[in-house]
Design a protein that fits this description.
The structure holds two protein chains of two kinds.
Chain A lengths: L2 E7 L2 H4 L5 E6 L5 H11 L8 E2 L4 E2 L3 E5 L3 E3 L11 E6 L5
Parallel strand pairs in A: 1-7
Antiparallel strand pairs in A: 1-2, 3-4, 5-6, 5-7
Chain B lengths: L6 E6 L4 E6 L2 H7 L2 H12 L13 E4 L13 E7 L6 E7 L1 H8 L4 E5 L6 E6 L2 E6 L8 H11 L4 E4 L2 H4 L7 E3 L2 E3 L4 H7 L2 E7 L9 H15 L5 H5 L5 H8 L15 H4 L1 H7 L1 E5 L9 E4 L11 E2 L2 H7 L8 H14 L3 H16 L17 H10 L3 H6 L2 H9 L9 E2 L2 E2 L9 H9 L12 H6 L11 H18 L12 H13 L5 H21 L11 H5 L14 H15 L9 H6 L2 H4 L14
Parallel strand pairs in B: 1-6, 7-12
Antiparallel strand pairs in B: 1-2, 3-4, 3-6, 4-5, 7-8, 9-10, 9-12, 10-11, 13-14, 14-15, 16-17
Helix pairs in contact in B: 1-2, 2-20, 2-22, 12-14, 13-15, 14-17, 18-20, 18-24, 20-22, 20-24, 21-22
The chains are: A alpha+beta, B alpha+beta.
Chain lengths: ~90, ~625
């Protein structure tokens, strides 16, 4: 069973992709590890500056947010159908 | 002496005289420099009941031990005064070449007393001062004044006020090198002294205790300052916040009535980067280079590049319902040239717009959400106090609302009189506390409490007593950064900020220093700021948030329906006072005062705490 999530790239990550908003199907388990791998295939330019493929998570300086509410710290976090995941800079100030 | 210059230059503007005062090493190391040393000097020099715009109110410029060394991002100075906008402590930072020149005059601080008899320009060449008539630059905007003065004094750096400062607009700025000491109205204080500008030239070297060691440590810091921790600032600048804040539902819009903005995409840092970016520049001594300059594309002035930060973008865009980037860039440029703080200008205009929307007339002229045509002329009217509306808005939103009445204080979005920055407190509850208790009022620079909310370390929609410790620690850290002085944009470039900054401080000054020493200095500075406020009349009721934030739920966005109640805020404030070891009513205890050595450092205090005890 797969779940469909929407990923929106914001900040520096958006500059690296021609698609700021992507819809991704994630196979079981539909967690952030799976999302990173899928995102890397869709947007290879993100690998390195934004995506840490070895650790299957975000590179330093970036953070995930789920549905505009919670910031996700655990890559094992399971996503559900219809979730909207934001990829943001972790530098919050300014 | 290494790092510090070890003395202050006092200037009596009334009598055109000057004198030096040596600074004890004990004081310098206790308060470091910048905001810390400035707070000490303000506490010592400013009588509690002084009129902020009267001749007895001092205006203080302070550099730091790191200024004019090779340390990246260190070319900064602090301006201190009793704020005419808030009546509390007023402090502001600015950057670049003027800071270096000030330090090279051979002084750690410049304290201005009195007021000029006629509009003047103060020339400082090392320890020599002279007052010159300001007739040729009076009335000029900040850029024109700086250009004219640098023609007359080619090797000098210039700090100047614009028309807003001349007319004592309560949120007027002081401008140098195109940058601004923006918040709390120090430009009005300078204007009250009939001082249009200061031209500075210094030739004294700054001695560093361990130059080779510092070079090595600075090289590591420079490398990190160009890495992932600063990529947002280097690639997009702070305007990157706008779209992110919109998606998180914390972008204050239409005077904090909404948390998302229909025009967010159009005004976003990402879109501006693609369509309006002119160039990216850096302050003196900075390896980050965050300053993004943008062009308009719809009129004759298109060639001019204008600096935009997130705070300016939010205050002159979503807050006013303006989504046209050309209009926002143009309004930002106008504020810079007139010498107006963009956050307070936007916040005060938004208050006036809500007055219009609610049928509260402020005079012949009106400003309305989303209508840009009248805004340019209104900013000019504010800066020159040249219309009834302009004169009213020149007082800032708090006083304007008090004068207007009709319930309009309910939508004046300020804390202690300082207009709110672009962080919606109902969706960022640690930051809500940081804003409420900040000594200088609603401020995103003296507390980075939002970091906890944005990190996921806490639930940003929940209020807890433990946020008090987070807010206190954040204030102390920011106080240290503002005193060393280091740019906050490199705070994530340290593995252990206090320990590494202490090592750097020791390499510069030669004085053995630990991370705990700096941590304690941060608490000392935060405590003295508070005590200054207590001396000028602070009460527990001043630590609060605008009524709207405590009575209305969020109307839209991912946090729609979320509230921040007064009880929740009080809970967090109580936690903050407890974390500080203050009384339940927020007063500094004599135990903490002594533990921080403030009893000996401020031996003849003007406003020492009474013998309060938490028990």
């Amino acid at each position: 069973m797969t779940v469909e999530v929407t990923v929106e790239l914001l900040g520096p990550s958006r500059l690296l992709s021609s698609e700021p908003i992507l819809r991704l199907d994630l196979a079981d388990p539909p967690n952030l590890h799976a999302l990173v791998l899928k995102l890397a295939r869709r947007c290879p330019a993100l690998v390195g500056p934004v995506l840490d493929i070895e650790r299957q998570t975000l590179a330093e300086g970036h953070v995930f947010n789920l549905n505009g509410r919670n910031f996700l710290r655990r890559p094992e976090t399971l996503l559900t159908d219809g979730d909207r995941v934001l990829v943001l800079s972790s530098a919050a100030g300014g | 002496m290494y790092g510090h210059q070890g003395k202050i230059l006092h200037v009596d503007l009334t009598h055109a005289s000057a004198w030096e005062e040596p600074l004890a090493e004990e004081v310098l190391h206790a308060f470091i420099g910048g905001i810390g040393l400035g707070t000490y000097l303000l506490y010592r020099e400013c009588p509690p009941n002084v009129d902020p715009l009267g001749p007895d109110a001092p205006l203080i410029f302070v550099t730091s031990p790191f200024v004019a060394t090779s340390i990246t991002t260190s070319a900064k100075y602090a301006v201190m005064a009793k704020s005419p906008l808030t009546g509390f402590i007023g402090d502001s930072l600015s950057s670049s070449h003027l800071a270096v020149e000030l330090k090279r005059t051979g002084y750690d601080a410049l304290v201005l007393h009195g007021a000029c008899k006629a509009w003047s320009v103060l020339e400082i060449t090392d320890g020599e001062i002279a007052l010159h008539p300001a007739d040729s630059v009076l009335g000029l905007d900040t850029r024109a004044a700086e250009i004219a003065l640098r023609k007359s004094w080619p090797n000098y750096r210039v700090a100047t006020i614009g028309p807003a400062g001349e007319h004592q607009v309560k949120f007027a700025t002081i401008c140098n090198d195109g940058r601004h000491a923006g918040r709390t109205g120090t430009g009005a204080v300078m204007g009250s002294k009939r001082l249009k500008a200061i031209c500075v030239r210094g030739t004294h070297p700054v001695r560093v205790a361990d130059r080779a060691g510092l070079r090595e440590m600075n090289a590591r810091l420079i490398e990190r300052s160009t890495g992932p921790a600063t990529s947002k600032y280097r690639q997009l600048g702070t305007p990157a916040n706008l779209l992110a804040f919109d998606r998180l539902g914390v972008l204050p819009t239409l005077n904090f009535q909404q948390t998302t903005f229909d025009g967010a995409e159009r005004l976003s840092g990402e879109e501006l980067h693609a369509t309006h970016l002119s160039k990216v520049v850096a302050c003196a001594s900075c390896t980050v280079g965050c300053e993004h300059l943008y062009r308009t594309f719809d009129a004759a002035d298109d060639a001019e590049a204008t600096r935009l930060e997130y705070e300016t973008l939010f205050a002159l865009g979503p807050m006013l319902g303006v989504s046209d980037p050309n209009a926002v860039i143009r309004l930002a440029r106008q504020c810079d040239l007139l010498g107006l703080d963009t956050i307070s200008a936007g916040g005060t205009l938004a208050w006036a717009m809500e007055c219009a929307a609610r049928g509260v007339r402020l005079g012949e002229d009106e400003v309305r959400f989303g209508e840009v045509d009248a805004l340019g002329t209104t900013l000019v009217a504010i800066a020159n106090r040249s219309s009834r509306l302009g004169d009213l808005l020149a007082e800032g939103s708090r006083l304007a609302a008090e004068r207007t009445g009709r319930g309009s204080s309910a939508w004046a979005m300020h804390v202690k009189g300082l207009e709110m920055p672009g962080y919606e407190p109902r969706g960022l509850k640690t930051m809500a506390l940081g804003l409420a208790i900040s000594p200088r009022g609603a401020c995103h620079n003296r507390s980075a409490a939002y970091e906890a909310d944005f990190s996921g370390a806490v639930d940003r929609f929940t209020a807890e007593i433990g946020r008090g410790r987070i807010a206190a620690d954040s204030e102390d850290q920011e106080a240290v950064l503002d005193s060393l002085i280091l740019c906050k944009f490199i705070r994530k470039c340290f593995d252990d900020l206090y320990t590494e900054a202490a090592e750097m401080y020791e390499l510069v000054t030669g004085r053995p220093t630990t991370g705990d020493d700096l941590r304690k200095a941060g608490e000392r500075i935060s405590t003295l700021k508070k005590q200054f406020n207590v001396g000028v009349g602070w009460t527990r009721d001043d630590d609060t948030l605008p009524e709207r934030c405590l009575s209305e739920p969020l109307a839209d966005g991912p946090g729609a329906g979320e509230r921040l109640t007064r009880a929740e805020l009080d809970l967090m404030i109580g936690g903050y006072y407890a974390a500080r070891g203050w009384t339940e009513s927020g007063l500094v205890t004599s135990e903490r005062w002594q533990a921080l050595n403030l009893d000996s450092l401020c031996a003849a205090p003007l406003q020492a705490p009474q013998a309060y005890s938490r028990s």
